[in-house]
Design brief:
With 420 residues, the protein is an alpha/beta fold. It contains 16 helices and six strands.
């Protein structure tokens, strides 16, 4: 029976807590959900992304993003409010960045619905490296030790008042508060919602059945878990340590690239397709004892915040270990990846960028141009990691060549945009 008042569940994050898995799962089962009266709004998930960018004003200073997202939240809210089935499931982790005024803006726009907010939370031992790699493939330039230092500052000062603000806060510390500040997220959304409408879902530990997270989420939003029997179309891509460091160094070399230029070439293609495919061939981002201690400290604060928030909890707070885990092998310092590993990743990246450039040249030819494939992207011998060994700094030489080719790929992409 259709509900008289729309019931809207806003899955607001946090980032790196299984959000992408759940979004892919919901998208893969959109028709099955719709058959049961459950709406996953928008024609594609990009619509939910642009709606969040619009309502939060997060255009990252990029006029293309601003233009694409303008009015997107109004359209999304109208679709959600017009639904009369059992539930609407909106999932976009950007909403976890909301401050009090932004959260109120979201809820005011949905005042004619019964709105619930769902927050997924995960062991910080897993979110710390995941958040760094995400920061890197979104253009970040901090090394892993630099990111850890910023996260440590955020964790150590989290209980202190007054906190530093504005220009006094290092970018990494600010980023940690924004993306992993679960206590802040609970306060912001909890204060704006009626009692009983804030829900926390814990992400199961490593080795658990992936569907366990979905079953917990389905319980939190009151949806039959069997409606999502189709597996996600793709996994959430991740990078090995060497590839993440390579992308980080490329970001330094490509300083100043607009987000709408960076994402189609460096993020979506090079990082999340070409380099992510070799993640299992590379060492993982290392966790030393100090990092595990930081994670345990943050987990304790998150558990305390959840407990005092009054949120409905689905899952097990033991999924957030409050004591250090790991053995003696974790006591070593966090060293940068070996040069040979970074060069191996660079060779793969070079081949991937060449293929991307050739595809874009073919696309432009199809649109009526007479472009030739640039010399740097033509078929040559398979590049090996020894390609740059004669240079005084082989990794620097590799990054410089890749950056030049990335600029060519970006320019071609912009030419495609202009001709479409």
């Amino acid at each position: 029976m259709a509900a008289e008042t729309p019931v809207v569940h806003l899955h607001v994050g946090a980032p790196k807590t299984g959000t992408t898995y759940l979004q892919h799962l919901l998208a893969a089962n959109r028709e099955s959900l719709a058959g049961a009266g459950v709406l996953f709004p928008g024609r594609e998930w990009r619509d939910q992304v642009q709606a969040a960018q619009d309502v939060l004003g997060h255009d990252e200073g990029d006029p293309r993003i601003r233009a694409a997202s303008a009015g997107a939240w109004e359209r999304m809210a109208a679709e959600m409010l017009s639904h009369r089935g059992p539930a609407v499931l909106y999932s976009m982790e950007f909403l976890s960045f909301a401050g009090r005024e932004q959260a109120r803006r979201v809820l005011d726009s949905l005042r004619d619905a019964e709105v619930h907010v769902v927050l997924t939370v995960r062991d910080a031992t897993r979110t710390l490296p995941a958040q760094w790699q995400t920061r890197v493939h979104n253009g970040g330039t901090e090394t892993w030790p630099e990111y850890l230092a910023g996260a440590a500052a955020a964790i150590e000062e989290a209980g202190n008042r007054p906190r530093r603000r504005g220009a006094d806060v290092p970018p990494v510390t600010r980023a940690f508060h924004a993306a992993q500040g679960i206590p802040r997220m609970l306060r912001v959304w909890g204060e704006a919602l009626p009692a009983g409408r804030l829900h926390v879902v814990t992400v199961p530990g490593s080795g658990a059945d992936p569907l366990l997270l979905w079953r917990r989420f389905a319980e939190a939003v009151g949806v039959d878990p069997s409606l999502c029997a189709q597996p996600p179309a793709r996994d959430n891509a991740s990078l090995g340590y060497a590839s993440a460091e390579l992308v980080r160094r490329l970001n330094v070399a490509l300083d100043g690239v607009a987000v709408s230029d960076y994402n189609p070439t460096l993020k979506a293609n090079l990082a999340l397709k070409v380099l992510a495919a070799r993640a299992r061939e590379e060492p993982r981002i290392p966790l030393d004892r100090h990092t595990r201690e930081l994670a345990a400290t943050w987990n304790r604060r998150v558990v305390e915040a959840i407990t005092t928030s009054g949120a409905d909890v689905v899952g097990d707070l033991a999924d957030l270990p409050q004591q250090i885990v790991g053995g003696a092998a974790d006591d070593a310092d966090v060293d940068p990846p070996a040069e040979a590993q970074v060069l191996d990743a660079a060779a793969v990246a070079l081949d991937g960028l060449r293929r991307l450039v050739r595809r874009r040249v073919r696309r432009l030819r199809g649109l009526g141009t007479t472009l030739d494939v640039p010399p740097a992207a033509r078929d040559k011998e398979t590049p090996g990691a020894d390609r740059w060994q004669s240079a005084s700094d082989p990794v620097h030489a590799a990054v410089a060549e890749l950056a030049d080719l990335a600029r060519v790929a970006i320019d071609l992409h912009n030419q495609v945009r202009e001709r479409r």
